[in-house]
Specification:
This protein is mostly helical. It has one domain: Tetracycline Repressor, domain 2 (Orthogonal Bundle). Helix content is 76%, strand content 0%. Helix 1 packs across helix 4. The protein is elongated. The termini are far apart. The mean pLDDT is 91.
Length: 176
């Protein structure tokens, strides 16, 4: 096998794809090296061990599932509506896979707990900015997050007019 020069970003990206497709058992150096067509040595050049790689995968998930989305929606006229559209417009195999992984892995569980807490804080801020009292916003933020989590593990997808109607209902419920 001839190694091509891969950076840690390529390994982490391959890890997220493998996680979404096959679950946490796919996050092994041998399996990923084979899927990338390189030797295991490339993996260990960038990561001290598998737990270090797992930490990098979870960091990237956090960026994709939280930080990048917040940065993107903050540029819109209505960040709450943009967030709801982003959350419910498509499925996230990675979200489900990370949460499944978190049931058996303390490192993943800590990452999920941290992301959930930050999502709830951000949702609460959006609701307070929309004029909802902070204590009410705190509970509604949890309900929005739980709604998203339930949706993310279902196979149901929303599109077109149904998606627009669903988001309209959520906005109505949470901004009242």
């Amino acid at each position: 096998m001839a190694d091509t020069r891969l950076g840690p970003e390529e390994w982490v990206g391959a890890g997220l794809k493998a996680l979404a497709k096959s679950g946490a058992s796919a996050l092994k150096a041998d399996k990923l090296a084979a899927s990338l067509g390189v030797s295991r040595g490339s993996f260990y050049w960038h990561f001290a061990d598998v737990p270090a790689f797992h930490a990098a995968v979870l960091k990237r998930w956090r960026e994709v599932a939280l930080e990048n989305i917040i940065a993107e929606i903050e540029t819109t006229d209505d960040p709450l509506e943009a967030l709801l559209h982003r959350a419910f417009a498509g499925g996230s195999g990675v979200e489900s896979a990370v949460r499944a992984w978190a049931t058996a892995n303390a490192q993943a569980r800590k990452a999920v707990e941290t992301v959930d807490a930050e999502r709830i804080r951000y949702l609460q801020k959006l609701l307070v900015d929309a004029g909802i009292a902070p204590d009410v916003a705190a509970m509604r933020a949890r309900v929005v997050n739980w709604t998203y989590l339930g949706f993310s593990i279902s196979s149901y997808r929303l599109e077109g007019a149904l998606l627009k109607q669903f988001i309209g209902e959520l906005l109505y419920l949470f901004r009242r």
